[in-house]
Specification:
Length: about 220
């Protein structure tokens, strides 16, 4: 199994995680945002295609027509610490120790009839098998606001500040963090910043390329 990229404790594999995970060792933490199985297409509610400054013309997410790959991960990682983003409408099954809320802020969000429904501007984060938290005991509502211009590399890109917070709160120096749905590599960039080792898996090569580009920049320029 040849890595797509490997440097300074960070490794990227290009391919389907269901084929790669069985060949990987146990890790210290799984931190990932898997496909929800909702067939996401884009962030453009106007149909004009200009709202998100992603440097690709197709905003689709490969594999998002099914949750099979996420369910495969849950079985593979059933004894490992795991933090998993989830749709509040369809949480991941299993025994979870805690549920966190990512408050995105008022600049984003949608869903439902805008005349009768509150704005949908948060996501669920499910946590299991984590150990002692680093630092203070924080609120379970994580306020990391984003705007439309923050989706630069991927249509479901998470803030680097949020991924750094989650990784730093639950792991120690030199721990190995796995993101089997790495997208444009935000989790791996967080690993590099924090001095953690990281493994990322991504099925679309265009996002592998974006991740390598981000990782190749200075640590102060993400």
């Amino acid at each position: 199994m040849t890595p797509y990229f490997e440097e300074d404790g960070i490794t990227i594999y290009h391919g389907d995680c269901r084929e790669i995970l069985p060949r990987l060792p146990s890790v210290d933490m799984v931190l990932t945002d898997p496909p929800y199985g909702i067939s996401l297409r884009n962030h453009d509610t106007t149909g004009k295609g200009g709202r998100v400054p992603i440097a690709v013309s197709d905003y689709s997410v490969a594999g998002d027509d099914s949750s099979d790959s996420a369910m495969f991960l849950l079985e593979w990682a059933k004894a490992m610490p795991i933090i998993l983003f989830a749709s509040p409408k369809n949480p991941w099954p299993g025994d979870w120790r805690q549920w966190l809320v990512w408050d995105k802020g008022g600049a984003v969000g949608g869903g439902g009839d805008i005349a009768t429904c509150w704005k949908f501007d948060w996501e669920l984060i499910q946590v299991s098998r984590t150990g002692r938290l680093n630092g203070t005991r924080d609120c379970s509502v994580l306020r990391f606001p984003v705007g439309q211009n923050d989706f630069v590399y991927h249509p479901t890109e998470k803030p680097l500040s949020l991924m750094s917070y989650l990784a730093g709160k639950t792991t120690g120096p030199a721990d190995l963090i796995l993101d089997p749905f790495m997208g444009s590599g935000t989790t791996l960039v967080a690993c590099k910043r924090l001095g953690r080792r990281g493994i990322g898996i991504e099925i679309e090569e265009r996002y592998c390329e974006a991740a390598v580009k981000r990782l190749s920049q200075s640590v102060f320029q993400f």
